[in-house]
Amino acid sequence: MSKDRVALYLQDAHSLQEGIKLVQYAEEKGFEAVWQAESRLVRDAIVPMAAFAATTSKIKVASGVTNNWTRNIGLLAATFLTLDDLAEDRIICGIGAWWDPLASKVGIDRRKPLSAMRETVQVLRSLLNMETVTFDGEFHHVDGITLDVVHGRREPRNVPIYIGATGMKMMEMTGEIADGACLNYLVHPSYNLAAVEALETGAKRAGRSIDDIDRPQLMICSVDYDREKALNKARKMMVQYLGQQPHLMKASGVSQELLDEIHQVLTWPATDEEIEAAMHLVPDDVVQMCTASGSPEEVKAKVREYIDNGCTCPILYPLGDPWLMIDIFSDGYN
């Protein structure tokens, strides 16, 4: 029997120095990948990815996820070429459509997100295939450009492209054009069934099957031998995200009534006081509905639920002790 797939997710909760040690430990314990977040205006994905790639030898290193709006397409391709120079065949480009109100607050108009993503993936893939690309689209305009490597490898690069899709239209397109879907966190496992159906529809359009689309999934993992402590960490995270990111609210399965209540307490960005004030609104069963939280046994069972509903590899976001979480999942989630 093959070993259960498992990956690590890092945002900005740990210093980069500790992040490097965690990734090395995860590699030692058999984790297949580390995904570095790039969502809020805090830590970019590329610098940590380079640090992780330079200090490991086997583990895959992914952006989880960067966005298709803020880097020029030529620079985006050159960036992932450079990362592949550092860790050949170990880099994954995870890319998403970002979210409002953050994007609009930095001057990005996220119009036609499907068309914009389709163009990005098409041009990026062609450039990483070391083709000379001319493309006159609505969002990207390039004229006879190539990744003009003079010193080093000039062959096409093996950098799979995974789209961080949440909505079903983006999910369908992901099935059509991407190597994989990076499924979101804070969703109920049943959300996965609709996601897989949409991916399959898109895959069929491109003459592929659902098995051709890898489906790793971000999961909030708050594990502690003190169950209440684990649940409270996840509760705080839930309040923060459900109150601020509309695309996650829509997909979470949490009742609109509860979301409205949370929203009444929070501004954007939410203060610590507001988050604390809203936490009591979210009961334990809602926390456990869309996070893997609680005792080690509960957490493993929840991860298994996501797997049973179509996820191919959990990408675990440690809220508690990350070393404990890596240990607990070093032998899979059975």
| Uncertain segments | none
Q: Spell out the helices and strands N to C.
A: EHEHEEHEHHEEEHEHEHHHHHEHEH
Task: Write down the Rg.
Answer: 19 Å
User: If classified by CATH, what would the architecture be?
Assistant: Alpha-Beta Barrel
Termini gap: 12 Å
Q: Biggest sheet: strands, sense, closure?
A: 10 strands, parallel
**Overall geometric form:** globular
CATH top level assignment:
Alpha Beta
Tally the structural domains. Answer: 1
Would you summarize the structure shown here?
With 334 residues, the protein is of the alpha/beta class. 45% of the residues lie in helices and 16% in strands. It has one domain (7-222, 294-329): TIM Barrel (Alpha-Beta Barrel), CATH 3.20.20.
Keyword list:
two-stranded antiparallel sheet, 334 residues, 14 helices, alpha/beta
Describe this structure as you would to a colleague:
The structure is a single chain. The chain has 334 residues and is α/β, with parallel strands linked by helices. It has one domain: TIM Barrel (Alpha-Beta Barrel), CATH 3.20.20.30. It is built from 14 helices and twelve strands. The strands form two sheets. Strands 1, 2, 3, 4, 5, 8, 9, 10, 11 and 12 form a ten-stranded parallel sheet that branches. α6 links the parallel β8 (161-164) and β9 (180-181). It is globular, with a radius of gyration of 19 Å.
Please specify the SSE layout and strand pairing:
Elements: E1 7-10, H1 16-28, E2 33-36, H2 46-54, E3 60-63, E4 66-67, H3 73-86, E5 91-96, H4 102-105, H5 113-128, E6 133-136, E7 141-145, E8 161-164, H6 168-177, E9 180-181, H7 189-205, E10 216-223, H8 227-242, H9 246-252, H10 256-265, H11 272-279, H12 284-289, E11 292-294, H13 296-308, E12 313-318, H14 322-329
Parallel strand pairs: 1-2, 1-12, 2-3, 3-5, 4-5, 5-8, 8-9, 10-11, 10-12
Antiparallel strand pairs: 6-7
